[in-house]
Design goal:
With 353 residues, the chain is of the alpha+beta class. α4 runs antiparallel to α10 and α5 crosses α10. It is globular, with a radius of gyration of 21 Å.
Length: 353
């Protein structure tokens, strides 16, 4: 169904000024994910309403939210991009090492080392000159779950590059953006219809042997904030990348508060006071504005819990296990809430899948 509605996606994305990803290009990846048992159409509908399907493209923020949701559904931190699966909680280990870094240079080096270790290959390397430090991501032999078309493989590599920079920028409190000097991509020539590359403040250098991020060594050696107390779980990693993108995506300024709140809840911000603080408003203002949009914090939390319950039931967890995992103390209360949400009891839903 989705594939039938995205024939004109490349043409549509050509008109977009904001960085975006055409669904026509990532459709082969969505097909592979669907074959693994994940309902990609349902995930897409979280970001594209039926009336909007004709636009057939995702903003960069929406693309990374899609990747996050696939990673959750498949319990694979790579979001099914690699044939070598990394359990979703692997991310906690990776960034736990990065949080020990005291400079951007140390963070770059740690990321390269630990991603190489986890992926089982020397795909990342760090090179220094007297003035620069460069993180090179070489995916020539990377075990991608899809190897063609070339446009998709290039897009995946370029989005990995964006993701790594956003993570470094978030962890360094914006220093990575200031220190960035050059961006290299393997794409052969400049193509202005490839709008996701407009993310970069520096014009990418094309026809490179590998993806490269070059930073000023002087700035990269400057101290960065200590990462203790930050959420560095897998959800936290995606949350920091998505947050960094939202900070640069002015098109999200009109996003409904309900959507922002739900995204934060799904990223693990369950406490109303903490969520209000992240949105730079008081709890009273948060409640008032949610009420103006016809929602409440409590109903959004419940929706996030029940969506998580669906994902766990899809993975084969028992009803009792899911009841405990999503924070219900009484299995009967969970059954009632789930049936109101889904129309089926948890047992009937699991059986239907």
């Amino acid at each position: 169904m989705i594939a039938d509605l995205i024939e004109d996606s490349v043409r549509i994305s050509q008109r977009s000024e904001a960085p975006s990803v055409p669904l026509a290009v990532i459709q082969p990846l969505l097909d592979v994910v669907s074959d693994s048992g994940v309902d990609t159409a349902e995930i897409l509908h979280r970001y594209i309403a039926d009336t909007e399907l004709a636009r057939a493209s995702l903003s960069l923020v929406e693309y990374f939210k899609l990747e996050r949701d696939i990673a959750r559904a498949t319990d694979d931190l790579t979001a099914h991009l690699s044939t070598r699966k990394l359990t979703y909680q692997t991310g906690s280990f990776v960034v736990d090492q990065v949080k020990k870094a005291t400079t951007l240079t140390e963070a770059i080096t740690s990321l390269a080392e630990y991603f190489n270790m986890m992926h089982g290959g020397a795909y990342n390397r760090v090179q220094r000159t007297a003035q620069t430090i460069t993180l090179t991501i070489d995916d020539h032999d990377f075990p991608y779950s899809v190897q063609e078309p070339v446009e998709l493989v290039q897009l995946i590599g370029e989005c990995v590059q964006i993701k790594v920079h956003c993570l470094l920028n978030s962890l360094s409190d914006g220093l990575a953006a200031s220190a960035l000097l050059r961006v290299g991509v393997t794409r052969q020539t400049s193509d202005e219809t490839v709008s996701h590359l407009s993310f970069w403040s520096r014009r990418p250098q094309y026809h490179r042997e590998a993806y490269a991020l070059t930073y000023s060594l002087e700035l990269a050696d400057s101290p960065i904030p200590h990462a203790d107390g930050l959420d560095l779980s897998s959800d936290g990693i995606f949350g920091r990348v998505i947050g960094a993108l939202e900070d640069t995506d002015h098109s999200l300024s009109e996003q409904r508060l309900v959507e922002k709140v739900f995204d934060l809840i799904e990223d693990g911000v369950w406490h109303q006071e903490q969520l209000a603080d992240q949105l730079d408003m008081s709890v009273a203002t948060l409640r008032r504005r949610l009420n103006e949009e016809g929602e409440s914090f409590r109903t959004l939390v419940q929706a996030a819990r029940l969506r998580r319950a669906e994902a766990l039931l899809n993975k084969g967890y028992t009803v009792q296990q899911v009841t405990d995992a999503v924070g219900y103390s009484d299995i009967r209360a969970f059954n009632r809430a789930f049936k109101r949400w889904n129309g089926l009891t948890p047992a009937a839903f699991a059986k239907s899948r």
